[in-house]
Design goal:
34% strand; 2 domains; single chain; alpha+beta
Length: 181
């Protein structure tokens, strides 16, 4: 009986994982794109044995609330450091897109119908900061001026606000590929 339960659990996990992968693959082929302006791009410690990870911080987080910081202040959120964000742990933002598909914050979604031209963008509060989409982008070991050219991140957007990172873009909104020196 235990062996059957074990193998059933393994099979259900494999089905769920494959379903998730297939749904993200379908989303990558979607024509709905969304571009988020980056506030800050920092190179993280090289925790990866292969590639150089960048930590992406999005300007839209600051548009949601000027007091909401994408990273906690030194020492964390404590008394006297500043107000804590007052958003739900998970939710959706309502955004509009300009002619280059750059997202602009409109409001926090409260379940009301969307107006024409409005889209949903899922967010999640982790500890005391907001995440919208992927936070890291990893590229190959050899690059030349790649980090300084990154200004935007391009995503594919599902109707429910789910996103998949396609890549990072320069000021001309074209996807960047690291160049070897």
């Amino acid at each position: 009986m235990r062996k059957a339960a074990f193998w059933l659990t393994i099979a259900l996990n494999a089905v769920a994982l494959n379903w998730l992968i297939a749904s993200r693959e379908r989303l990558l082929t979607s024509p709905n794109s969304l571009v988020l302006r980056l506030k800050l791009v920092t190179q993280t410690d090289n925790w990866s044995q292969h590639g150089n990870p960048l930590w992406l911080q999005f300007e839209i987080v600051q548009q949601v609330s000027p007091t909401l910081s994408p990273i906690p202040p030194p020492g964390g959120w404590s008394k006297g450091v500043g107000p804590r964000p007052t958003l739900e742990r998970r939710g959706r933002l309502v955004v509009t897109l300009d002619e280059n598909h750059v997202a602009r914050f409109v409001r926090v979604h409260a379940g009301e119908p969307l107006q024409p031209g409005e889209h949903l963008l899922r967010y999640r509060m982790r500890n005391s900061w907001m995440t919208v989409g992927a936070e890291n982008y990893t590229f190959g070991d050899d690059y030349q001026g790649f980090r300084s050219a990154v200004q935007y991140a391009e995503f594919r957007l599902a109707p429910d606000g789910t996103t998949v990172l396609v890549g990072v873009c320069g000021p001309d909104f074209k996807l960047l590929e690291p160049r070897k020196p």
